[in-house]
Design goal:
The structure holds 3 protein chains of 3 kinds. By secondary structure, chain A is an alpha+beta fold. Chain A has 17 helices and 17 strands. Chain A folds into 2 domains: about 1-125, 2-Layer Sandwich (Beta Polymerase, domain 2); about 240-559, Orthogonal Bundle (Cytochrome-c3 Hydrogenase, chain B). Chain A has a 5-stranded mixed beta sheet with strand order 1-2-5-4-3. In chain A, helix 6 packs antiparallel against helix 7, helix 8 (about 320-340) packs antiparallel against helix 9 (about 360-385) and helix 14 runs parallel beside helix 16. Chain B has a domain at about 50-175: Rossmann fold. Chain B is about 35% helix and about 10% strand. Chain B is built from 6 helices and 4 strands. Chain C is an all-alpha fold. Helix content of chain C is about 70%, strand content about 0%. Chain C contains 16 helices and no strands. Chain C is globular and about 65 Å long. Classes of the chains: A alpha+beta, B alpha/beta, C mainly alpha. Chains in contact: A-B, A-C, B-C. Bound molecules: iron/sulfur cluster (SF4). Iron/sulfur cluster (SF4) binds near residues 62, 100, 126, 133 and 134 of chain B. Iron/sulfur cluster binds near residues 62, 100 and 134 of chain B.
Chain lengths: ~550, ~190, ~375
């Protein structure tokens, strides 16, 4: 019976995907369709916008969620890969590829009008690869300073420090953005736009500011206390991880994943391990899967606790902040006993985990579950129903479901807007198909929904751990893996549910022991890109509060 | 001045790892014509200064979280009287640089450092702030914040544990205690 | 009658002894001058000491709320922590800022500290520990304490810093609004007590504190006074002008060294002043708990010196304000103004009328039960 159903389902998927292929060929007859790890469609750059639009607007299975936008230097051509998927079923994925051979003045068409999330991604591609996007309203470099020489992710980048010396001169912010647009006649026009009006009262929130959760820089135009417009500047912690990875072996790269979003360090690492394991066809032992899942969930609780703490702190309740950190220490203690690390735990390795759990692990975790449930009630009493807190969260910073999808806001924030986007449910990995848990969805989309979502997800994570903790099977903790892993030629994607949303890894391998191109999808970037939208016409204090409820981690954005 | 006079409560001098460094530091100061602590008043001033180090947190990445953990309930930096984290550089005495420093940030950290009022100290927390850490080969990372501003104490680790941060801060207190305020020829 | 009990711990004798000795050998002018100087010096010293104690107390109490230890390494239990802080602040560089309005920038902290000093001087700390006893004491205190806002506004204006500016503007809006409520709450009690002089007001509360005497109305006034007083001191949840997480340090962002120290001290002192005025006006000031007719009990209570009573009551109120500060998230500016203009002020106006009715119709406790109160 079940098998029948499953067959039917595969058949349906098959059917739908066949239809999609037909649709693609109808729209762009020259498109090249390949079945790789994902369905891959290569088109010329002038057809891309059309194809993306058709795919987004088709009724049967709209591909309206732009997961990743990856710029690649393919050697002779500079190109971009778009990973699209459907917002209703995240497992329906499709890769669009395009490129241009003009290395001097590479131009592609922007898809910002279709997917808002593309805007920052395209600016990032411009900064790192030098591809400019026609019709993107704002073509400033995203991470790097405007006067940076060279495009780091190009293979022929000259890393000579003399080209880009360390400068200690403060530079004034320039609020004029260049752009390239195409007018009706099909001519390309280069011009500039002013980001702010003539006499806007602009304050700089960040990069060094107590509550931007790192070093984000929001240039904010104020009208009294009300936020009129926000301009996001990023890159104050751009560490060039993707470029560095291109000269490191896979096990070495693992260490960078921890340091992207250090609060979901273990989960990020899991993501990269999965990508490599899938590509190298390594079977992960059952025991390792259990340990990974438990550790991931502990990590999630840890991160949500910190997020809760920071959000309350942003609203001005310092005591609540300290309480959140206090509970977090217990998890850190468990981590430390398992593998010696506190924040960054180096637990996952390709093929399994590095350290086995210790003898008392089960006991510690179980007592933590009991303790944490108790504390969740305390949080509820202490903060969740406080009048002032409610006034500062309910109906503040509303993000609608459409916008959430458009800006690719996933994680607790996306689910707070009513979008079911939990990778653990849609594309189960590790043991998530074996355990029973609820995907917490709220439809209000305001700060309070995001706030409650986190607390509820802590409860769900406890529930998941509870189901696994007594059943950890005996066996190996790590598969036999060669010290130097060579991935066969190809493109590999993996997606995991990190604490702030979907974390994704893209590896393009050319059969070497180093990746040819490695790209991380950062959930926080989407969160930040939605900030200007949802903070508009809110008060400055709420801008800080909303930032707390979105809970982004900046090094994850800047990479 | 003798090293044994530099007293940090609860920890004997012998337990600090780099006493030679401090001895050399004292020698160096003396050689340059700076008298190290002479008077009782100086001792009082240094006692005040070293026990009231208000930090400004310049946290850019992961290490910042460990600082937060240090400030919270479990480790409690307040024991040293350092919980008064000032967000305005003008009121802070100590800048804790926690995290990677990149080119785009360099002018800003310089500026914040310049905004601080004397006497000011800098602690480089974590491998990144010391040398660029795991990212030392990157095109956009500054190999150590000492390229930009002078650093008093380096705290290794990636990230350093709260205990190491405490140890580093106590080292800083010792360093403050050998300074001289009154009658300093170089002032 | 009650005063017949000996009160060896009071300083009344000391002051009168001093006065008579001086008068014995000097002319009136010199006597007064010397006394003024002594009183002034004592007040200044008390000002600093109280602020230091408060800073220490706050840090310890906060630590207690937050499951931490608090300062415990400088001196026994960290008792000398705030002394160390003070030494450091005194010697810290004072940064001079380009393109700021120099004169106003330097004047601002003085406004702040002078305002709180002036208020501080008029507070009755105990029997014979009352520097000036105006016959319009309440009015004076209300008027003088509002001067502090000038310091805040000037600081924000002259710093040439946008955060400071926003902080100062917030502070202005906040202070003006809450000053109204605080004033009205005090007026309610003035109606009840029939005097504006602190000493008379305190004497009138010998058997029945004002907060009980005017029952419903007094209680409402008390609560309103605490809320608006708390708001006036710019402390959480009303700390919008310096909201750490929004405006870095608000109006005093650009101040360093001693100038910042002034703001820092004034913040704590204002907290103390609000609590002590509440004590004086509502809780019987420095008077001990006394019950009509229980002569022995009254005697024992009276034996405890008046300043202990005063500081004890004040400490309770300060603890209350710390408790509030560390449990609530910060209000937003519109919530803050709504609270004042839509709730506190209307309630206050009605309350004053209610109090007048209570007093005129003889419904206060002293009128109703003269035997007990
Ligand atoms: S030293 Fe390590 S933990 Fe600290 S900021 Fe650098 S990478 Fe992160």
């Amino acid at each position: 019976m079940r098998i029948d159903q499953r067959n039917k389902k595969t058949f349906d998927i098959y059917n739908i995907m066949e239809n999609i292929k037909k649709l693609i060929l109808n729209t762009v007859p020259t498109a090249v369709i390949e079945e790789k790890q994902k369905l891959t469609v290569t088109v010329t750059f002038d057809k891309l916008h059309l194809l993306a639009k058709t795919l987004k607007e088709n009724a049967a299975l709209p591909f309206d969620f732009l997961v990743k936008l990856i710029g690649v230097d393919r050697g002779e051509e500079l190109g971009v890969n778009y990973l699209l998927c459907s917002s209703t079923d995240l497992s329906k994925e499709l890769v669009l590829k395009t490129g241009t051979t003009d290395r001097e003045n590479p131009l592609l068409y922007s898809i910002t009008d279709l997917f808002e999330t593309a805007q920052y991604n395209e600016r990032e591609v411009f900064a790192l690869l030098g591809i400019r996007f026609i019709n993107n309203p704002d073509m400033r470099k995203f991470f790097l300073n405007a006067d940076w020489v060279g495009y780091p992710l190009r293979k022929d980048y000259d890393a000579n420090p003399e080209l880009n010396p360390l400068s200690l001169e403060s530079v004034d912010m320039i609020d004029i953005a260049p752009r390239i647009t195409e007018n009706e006649k099909g001519e390309l026009v280069e011009d500039t736009v002013n980001i702010f009006g003539e006499d806007d009262y602009i304050i700089n929130i960040g990069p060094q500011h107590p509550s931007t959760h790192g070093v984000m820089h929001f240039r904010t135009a104020l009208d009294g206390e009300i936020v009129k417009k926000i301009d996001v500047h990023s890159g104050y912690i751009h560490r060039g991880i993707e470029k560095l990875s291109e000269s490191l072996t896979y096990p070495q790269i693992l260490h960078f994943t921890d340091r992207l979003d250090y609060l979901s360090a273990n989960i990020n690492r899991h993501g990269l391990c999965m990508a490599v394991e899938k590509a190298a066809e390594i079977e992960v032992p059952e025991r390792a899967q259990y340990i990974r899942t438990i550790m991931d969930e502990l990590n999630r609780i840890d991160s949500h606790l910190l997020a809760w703490a920071c959000q309350t702190n942003d609203l001005g309740a310092t005591t609540a902040f300290i309480y959140g950190m206090r509970e977090r220490e217990i998890i850190l203690d468990i981590f430390e006993k398992t593998c010696g690390g506190r924040l960054i735990i180096n637990q996952n390795v390709v093929g399994g985990v590095m350290f086995d759990i210790y003898n008392e692990f089960q006991k510690d975790v179980k007592s933590f579950i009991i303790y944490m449930r108790d504390k969740l009630k305390e949080y509820d009493r202490f903060f969740s129903h406080n009048v002032i807190a409610l006034g500062r969260m309910v109906t503040i910073g509303v993000l609608s479901k459409e916008d959430a999808i458009n800006y690719a806001v996933t994680g607790p924030a996306g689910r707070g807007s009513g979008w079911s986007c939990d990778i653990r449910k849609h594309i189960p990995y590790a043991l998530y198909d074996k355990v029973d848990f609820k995907e917490i969805i709220r439809t209000e989309g305001d700060s309070y929904a995001r706030y409650l979502n986190r607390l509820d997800e802590i409860e769900e994570s406890l529930h998941i751990i509870e189901q696994l903790i007594d059943n950890v099977p005996e066996g190996d903790i790590c598969a036999k893996v060669k010290p130097i892993i060579r991935l066969p030629e190809g493109e590999y994607y993996s997606r995991v549910e990190a604490c702030r949303g979907e974390f994704g890894v893209f590896i393009e391998s050319r059969g070497d022991k180093f990746p040819y191109r490695l790209k991380f999808r950062s959930p926080s970037m989407a969160l930040v890109s939605a900030m200007p939208l949802i903070c508009q016409n809110e008060k400055v204090s709420d801008f800080i509060g909303i930032g707390g409820s979105m809970d982004y981690v900046i090094p994850d954005i800047d990479r | 001045m003798e090293l044994k006079n530099v007293n940090i409560k609860g920890i004997p001098t012998a337990e600090f790892n780099d006493n030679e460094y401090l001895e050399n530091y004292i020698k160096e100061l003396e050689a340059n014509g700076v008298n190290v602590v002479l008077s009782k008043i100086d001792e009082l001033i240094n006692w005040g200064r070293s026990n009231s180090v208000w930090p400004l947190i310049y946290a850019t990445s992961c290490c910042g979280i460990e600082f937060m953990a240090t400030a919270a309930a479990h480790h409690d930096i307040a024991r040293f009287g350092m919980e008064v984290t000032r967000n305005s550089p003008r009121q802070a005495d100590l800048m804790i640089v926690a995290g990677t420093m990149v080119h785009k940030m360099a002018p800003l950290i310089k500026r914040v450092y310049d905004q601080m009022a004397e006497p000011k100290y800098v602690v480089a927390m974590g491998a990144c702030a010391i040398s660029g850490g795991p990212f030392i080969n990157s095109y956009h990372v500054v190999p150590g914040v000492d390229q930009i501003i002078p650093v008093d104490v380096y705290i290794p680790g990636c990230p350093p544990r709260p205990e190491s941060l405490f140890y580093g801060l106590m080292q800083l207190q010792r360093k403050i205690k050998v300074e001289q305020f009154l009658g300093n020829k170089q002032r | 009658m009650i005063l017949n009990y000996s009160q060896p711990l009071e300083v009344t004798n000391l002051t009168s002894w001093l006065d008579s000795t001086l008068r014995g050998s000097l002319s009136e002018f010199w006597v007064l001058l010397i006394e003024f100087v002594i009183v002034g010096a004592l007040l200044l010293a008390a000002y600093a000491v109280i602020a230091l104690i408060l800073i220490y107390a706050e840090r310890k109490i906060t630590a207690f709320f937050q499951a931490r230890f608090g300062p415990n390494r400088v001196g026994k239990w960290g008792l000398l922590q705030s002394v160390a802080d003070m030494i450091k602040i005194l010697l810290k560089e004072i940064v001079k800022i380009n393109r700021s309005d120099r004169f106003l920038f330097f004047a601002a902290p003085f406004f702040m500290i002078v305002a709180s000093m002036l208020t501080f001087g008029a507070i009755p700390f105990g029997k014979a520990l009352h520097a000036i006893d105006f016959n319009i004491g309440v009015l004076y205190v209300t008027a003088v304490s509002s001067l502090g806002i000038i310091g805040v506004l000037l600081a924000g204006w002259s710093s040439n810093n946008k955060y400071s500016m926003i902080g100062a503007m917030r502070s202005g809006a906040q202070f003006v609004s809450y000053e109204l409520s605080a004033g009205f709450a005090l007026m309610t009690i003035v109606v009840l007590a029939g005097t504006m002089q602190f000493s008379t007001m305190i004497e009138g509360q010998r058997y029945c504190w004002n907060i009980f005497n005017g029952h419903i109305s007094s209680m409402i006034a008390f609560v309103i006074y605490l809320i608006s007083g708390h708001a006036e001191t710019n402390r959480g949840p009303f700390d919008l002008p310096e909201a750490e997480s929004e405006l870095t340090a608000g109006y005093h962002t650009e101040y360093s060294g001693l100038q910042f120290g002034f703001y820092y001290l004034a913040e704590y002192l204002n907290m103390f002043i609000i609590a002590s005025i509440a004590t004086t006006v509502f809780l019987g000031g420095y008077l001990p708990i006394q019950v009509k007719g229980w002569v022995d009990f009254n005697g024992i209570m009276d034996y405890i010196p008046s300043y202990v009573w005063f500081f004890g009551k004040t400490a309770v109120l300060i603890f209350l304000s710390l408790w509030v500060r560390w449990s609530f998230p910060r209000l937003r500016i519109d919530q803050l103004l709504n609270l004042e203009w839509k709730y506190l002020l209307p309630i206050n106006l009605v309350n004053i009328v209610l109090m007048v009715i209570l007093v005129l119709t003889g419904l206060t406790l002293t009128d109703l039960l003269p035997g007990i109160f």
